[in-house]
Amino acid sequence: MSAFLAFRSAAVSVLRPRRAHHFPQTTSSFFKQYSTKHELIQAAKQRKKVKELEMEERKKNKPRPATKPKVFAKHPKNNDIPHAFVQVIGADGQLDSTPRPLIRLLDSVNHETHVVRLVTHEPPLVRVLTHLEDKMNQLATKAEKKAAKGQKGMDTTVIQLTWHTADADYEHKISKAKEELEKGSMRVEILFKNKPRVRYPSKEEMQEEMDQVAHALSEVGQEWRTREIQRGVAKVFIQSRTQKAVKILPTKEEIEAQAKEALTKRLEGQKRSQNSHGSW
After folding, report:
1. Distance (Å, rounded) from C-alpha 57 to C-alpha 59?
2. Is 3.30.110.10 the CATH classification of the domain at 155-240?
3. What is the pLDDT of residues 17-67, one digit of tens each?
4. What is the pTM of this model?
5. CA proximity to 137, closest of 265, 33, 263
6. Homologous superfamily of 78-150 in CATH?
7. Spans of biased composition, class Basic residues (predicted)?
8. Helix 252-279 / helix 131-150 crossing angle, nearest 10 deg
């Protein structure tokens, strides 16, 4: 009997269908997610690469800023002249019709006594001058510029007063305004302002104080523009009664003397420099 039971148990265990092992559904979704993430990373890398290529292409095609034209000295000399061919203006003012190479011209000049000076860039015209003539031209140009500067419009000085200014301060400011106007070709703008936490004067009081200042300066100046009054601030415009003396240009003899003095000083300086180097 026991043998029969053992046989039946063994048969049942063999014939019974085995339970299938079911893997969790998350396994396939895991691989699917992994695949999707990998694709996203690859796509991101690809987009980055495309963007870098686009940036490089933009840099290549980006228009470069226009280069600034070279600025040359107005009247350079010798090797500083930026032209390969030049035309020479003779001592008589006649122009050499044939352009010549600058190098050959410089080779033909004794640089101890003469200098090649550019007169104009377009066309490139030059003069061959002695050092004295060259220095005289420089001094004459400098004197002309200085004289022209002195003949320009009037300079303006602003002097500020407060309404009801005290006597000492008032006298100081008026004295300063007189000094400016006495220089000639000057304009003084008197600016009236109110003190903090002080009542504004009436319109009549303002006019009275402005009249007082204009009268105090009447000997050296006169009003040249309509007075301005706005919100307690007023301006009186006064200009000199006299003009600055026109600066007289130096004569040719004076310029020549100045040029000789300048050249002598330069030669003495060069000699001292050579002697100091030779002592070493």
Report:
1. 5
2. yes
3. 555 555 455 555 545 555 676 777 777 788 888 788 878 877 777 666 655
4. 0.45
5. 263
6. Translation initiation factor 3 (IF-3), N-terminal domain (3.10.20.80)
7. 60-76
8. 120
